[in-house]
Amino acid sequence: MAKSVDDLAQHGERGGAAEDPAELVAREEQVFGDNPLEVRESDHYTHEYVGGFVDKWDDLIDWKKRYESEGRFFIDQLKARGVESVLDVATGTGFHSVRLLEEGFETVSADGSPQMLAKAFSNGLTYGGHILRVVHADWRWLNRDVHGEYDAIICLGNSFTHLFSERDRRKALAEFYAMLKHDGVLIIDQRNYDAILDDGFSSKHTYYYAGDDVSAEPDHVDEGLARFKYTFPDKSEFFLNMYPLRKNYVRRLLREVGFQRIDTYGDFQETYADQDPDFFIHVAEKNYRTEEELSDVYSTAVHTARDYYNSEDADNFYYHVWGGNDIHVGLYNTPDEDIDAASRRTVERMASKVEITPETRILDIGSGYGGAARYLAKTYGCKVACLNLSEVENARNVQFNEAAGLSELIEVKDGSFEDIPFQDNAFDLVWSQDAILHSGDRERVLEEVTRVLSKGGSFVFTDPMAADTARKRDLGPILDRLNLDTMGSPGFYRRELARLGLQTIDFEDLSSYLPVHYQRVLDVLESRESELSDRIGEEYRTKMKRGLRAWVESGNAGSLAWGIIHARA
């Protein structure tokens, strides 16, 4: 049964001794012990939201400004999915619960802080005379404390960051998932801790904490703690100890719990640079999708890449300029060597890293025109599956395979490497050349590779990367050209492969070939520009030349890395 605010005041926090109601609501002092930086426990937040802090919380948020800044984002997300019932699991002082009630949603308001619930109930009456249905609940036992199923669950206000252990985070998400109807949606937000951890704190002070003369700034940040200090006009100070959740880590947890589609917005915008937003909002759908429907699940970066490679200009550029067989970086004996010959040398070098027999099952992710697959199938007599997101490139791949008499050995499949449409342990070798950079969720790609790789199997790939020592500002022109927020790096791939249990056998650093290759492509484009003008539009050619020069400059400056990575399951 839901506890009323009176119940909370009478009985205090769950299972605890009874406390005086006035003391419960008005308690001013936060207690963090002798060393606040050691306070890294999921349960401690209930002691952080003391009465004095809760009373000032609305000054920090500023309901009017937040209403204006977020607009109808959450309301539109819910209504677009036909949502009627909503469980607000991080009610706080009630801003979103009141907003939902105003819009006609059947709303239940839950929170782990009795002080917050008391304030929310009072705010509901003040703002529109709403009587909130409040429930004192711990997310880890949500199904015990709250009954029923809901069309949507919202967990807003950077609240999920209060959970310090991965076990608690997984348990809470599992509880959310279980309480959603079969086609339900979870909306969960978080600070942009990636930017804070990697580049230091900055804030536009626009969307979430918009109160005048109120500051919310980090007092201490490390990979396991973000301790924020909140300062109010009367010079009072309060603190919150939170876990700094990285964006893709949260996305991974949501996927592993079972959510099928996860869209991530930055400050309510679908398109953003990773370091720009103050907050990320994840919209996770429970609704199960078949393999045929998975194309709707791909990240924004993958959709962008698909549209690009399907364009007539791109197809003609890669077919007529880049060589039309292998669309990747080549190994050059001389700077003016034929692109196709240099590209084939890369394929041969990669193949020499592993043992391949006619029985070897190979998957090429991001296979382009299928040049590597044809080389492997013809040379070793093995079967190769090509997975690629461009239908235009795949059509050329099929045509070339038929002309080479290799159709029986090569399967060409439309799809994304973020959701590989093959069974677990299906391949002895996963192969990829200069494709993974196009993903907005590279961790997801590596997880999928690991899933389909057999025990003892090999993963051999190349990818244009940021050098481990590169600064983000050095990569700006490259990222802009590719419509990307970030690039991988040798260190990133080593860490992620190790996390997934793959042993990195070798990284052959061939970074010096990267600017040579892009200079060669630029030279060919410029020398043949007049004859290609009818096939490749002027705007595309202009942007491509600018982009190629950026690759050359960044490569020569040492900001980029490239080479062959070999890992084994």
Describe this structure in words.
It is elongated and about 75 Å long. Helix content is 39%, strand content 20%. Helix 1 (5-11) runs antiparallel to helix 8 (114-126) and helix 21 (513-527) runs antiparallel to helix 23. Keywords: Methyltransferase, S-adenosyl-L-methionine, Transferase. Residues 86-184 form the Methyltransferase domain. Residues 363-461 form the Methyltransferase type domain. It comes from Saccharopolyspora gregorii.
| Overall mean pLDDT | 86
Number of helices: 23
Strand content: 15-25%
Radius of gyration: 27 Å
Q: Give the overall form.
A: elongated
Instruction: Outline the biggest β-sheet.
Output: 7 strands, mixed
Strand order of the largest sheet: 3-2-1-4-5-10-9
What keyword list fits this structure?
seven-stranded mixed beta sheet; Gly/Sar_N_MeTrfase; disordered N terminus; alpha/beta; 23 helices; 19 strands; 569 residues; single chain
Question: Secondary-structure blueprint of this entry?
Answer:
Layout: H1 5-11, H2 21-26, H3 45-48, H4 51-61, H5 63-70, H6 73-80, E1 85-88, H7 95-102, E2 106-111, H8 114-126, E3 134-136, H9 142-145, E4 150-155, H10 166-179, E5 180-191, H11 193-199, E6 215-222, E7 225-231, E8 237-242, H12 247-257, E9 261-266, E10 279-285, H13 300-310, H14 312-320, H15 339-351, E11 361-365, H16 371-380, E12 383-388, H17 391-404, E13 410-414, E14 427-433, H18 442-452, E15 453-462, E16 465-466, H19 476-482, H20 490-499, E17 503-509, H21 513-527, H22 529-532, H23 538-556, E18 560-561, E19 563-568
Parallel strand pairs: 1-2, 1-4, 2-3, 4-5, 11-12, 11-14, 12-13, 14-15
Antiparallel strand pairs: 5-10, 6-7, 7-8, 9-10, 15-19, 16-18, 17-19
Helix pairs in contact: 1-8, 15-16, 21-23
Pfam families: Methyltransf_11, Methyltransf_25
Biased composition (Basic and acidic residues): 1-17
Region (Disordered): 1-23
